[in-house]
Design a protein that fits this description.
The chain has one domain: RNA polymerase II/Efflux pump adaptor protein, barrel-sandwich hybrid domain (OB fold (Dihydrolipoamide Acetyltransferase, E2P)). The protein is of the alpha+beta class. Helix content is 19%, strand content 34%. The strands form two sheets. It has a six-stranded antiparallel sheet with strand order 1-2-3-9-8-5. It has a three-stranded antiparallel sheet with strand order 4-6-7.
Length: 128
Amino acid sequence: MENPKDLKYTKDHEWVRVEGTKAVIGVTDTAQSLMGDVVFVELPEPGSEYGAGDAAANIESVKAVSEVFMPVGGKIIEVNMELEDSPDLINKDAFGEGWILVVEMSDPGDLDNLLSVEEYGKLIAEGE
């Protein structure tokens, strides 16, 4: 799957779609591929606040448990409740229905530390 050009990325394989002051966050297709079949997602509580780089969610797959790190800091305003019954949405549609959470950004400047689609593509090609 090709990485969408309109998203920002982290070195830890999270993606961010900016919608005004909100950021929708998920894990990339590369991440879900490396994890294998996702069997459980532990979501954060809406209203919780996290800084950029903080672990906010856990994804359990048949291979391991992986943390989801916050690409930007802020308050969780929504979580994808569909993942409770269908965690495999992350495998099926990592950039769409498999989104994990929405955060009201506390500092949009955090976006400056993220990777463009080209930079993320180089990272993957290098096998990071």
